Amino acid sequence: MLSLISRSSCCMDTIVASPNFLACLCFHCLQLETHPGYYRRAVSESMGKRNATSEEIERDLHRSLPEHPAFQSSQGINALRRLLNAYAWRNPAIGYCQAMNIVASVLLLYASEEEAFWLLVALCERLLPDYYNTKVVGALIDQEQYCVLSVLHLVPWLPKRLCAAALVRRGDGVLEDLARDHIPELYTKLDSLGVLSMISLSWFLTIFLSVIPFESAVNIVDCFFYDGAKVVFQVALAVLEANQERLLSCKDDGEAMMVLCSYLENVHNPQAAVCSRSAFQPTTGSKETVDILTLVYDSYSKYGFLTSGMIEKLRLKHRLSVVQYLRDKIVKWGYNLWVLADSNSSYTVQFSVYTGKRETPSVNGLAFDVVTSLCEMYFDQGYTLFMDNFYSSSLFLHLLERKTLACGTTRKDRHTFPAELKDSTWEKKAKRGDVRWLRHQGVLYLQWKDRRAVHMMSTAHTANSHVTATWKLKVAGQWKKVPIRKPRLIEEYDAGMLGVDRLDQLIASYNVLMKCVRWWKTLFFHCIDIAVVNSFILFEAHRREHPEIPELHRAPRYDQLAFRMELVKQLLGIEATGFGSAPPPRESVHKPKVMETRRNCKLLLASRKVEHKTSVFCETCGVYLCFIATRDCFGEWHRRHKE
Q1: How many separate domains does the chain show?
Q2: What is the CATH number of the domain that holds 306?
């Protein structure tokens, strides 16, 4: 059975099972039948492995319904540990997200471990898609998209493009849309206070389990498995409407949050066999209690017309444009950044965050706009830009007009690529090292046959300049290095693009990997990483230019980690000499000495009654002891007789 609480007194008695409920029930049954032993294998594969996900799970285990008797013993904690680790093994793209522990602990109370596992799978992957991931994209879409505005006051050095994007992208979420349509007066008040974005995330992520007493919140979970995600919106709207009069009189966001918290803490379930103390003895001063069945009934009677289809349409409308679906990445949701970096030092000169499709289409295309905006300060100065095939287009002609050279890969299916070079016959017949090219309007189009044909564009190179490269060829069973011609254009392109590759490596070496509820925090920490790496690059360049300054002298292998440690100490106000070096090891007073005479080993004679002659003598202890490769009686004796 999936139903967690009896519906005998609920308004749902006569409702025919909804498609969401039947789909969830079918999914649950099919998974159990078609995957026998899957959960046991997931547990055996995941348990005992120490990683970032398992450590995060361990930190949250004892925060999961800590007042419930089931999780005050090792049996309940171990079951929850197995369940969460098994799901993290099944879905590494999600792994573990905070709030999953609360939902999983409730599922364990009403189902076996294996049943709870498949219910959690249905919850995370079907009923609430994109809620439980590193960016909690789904939850952010369902609530107000507030975010970066608060960061701008803290970080004035963020790029202006990011600031502009943040100001533009303050949008409404699904809950805001519903509140505006059905409780417009209250919506206006809450919007001015900024309350919805502060409270709704915890409501949705835990299906009210973290804000309503457990024995009452399970009724909402019950309806959730019955009718799907629309239930959380129904209940949220019902809670807001029930407190409308008091919320309208609130003067600030703190007072409004106190009103809502007081109301939710005093929701109780009269049918529950055991009720928590908080349900009947509220701590916020209010003595009114709310029947959970009444709250659920009101949510269905007033907002039961909402359907899953309506919710999905609103979600599609409000999907965060900054958070992108990354099809080719292990982590499917993330951010796209356009980066301008120095080819030699890997210094990040400028970057911009992709904020989604624009309302008005660009005249010249996205690639054109990105490059011109990032390089605006560097035009007409003779720089050379290296770029991949996303940017290679008629942009090169514009750059040439601005006295800026460019080189990059391209694709032959581009409409600007010459038709004379698009035929595939040459590629099939050409040998490795063959080249053909064409120059049009100052842009060189070149094709070089490696394992496959490489297509290039450049305004900075000639076609006749080559270098010698080598590739391995198997001849008569022997691998030999064969020289081939390689255009200098490609050689310099590879060297130029190394700047961005090295930048990625530097940032990835010690980056701040944090799963954040607010999407902008991940972007904020990435900005910090960029700033630290840039500081390291500038510091190293300054050291090379001024070797005569004693204060700049560092260890021969001074790397980014050492720089970060030094930076942390400076920010914390810790002197460089604050950490004393470890004292040198105390010189041992027991030293083996080889004597001319041989005597019986003291240890063998005392412990085994075995006579074995040795010439090794300890002057401190006055005993002969064996000290050979196969037997260290000298060390064993002194371990037993420590002074």
Answers
A1: 5
A2: 1.10.472.80
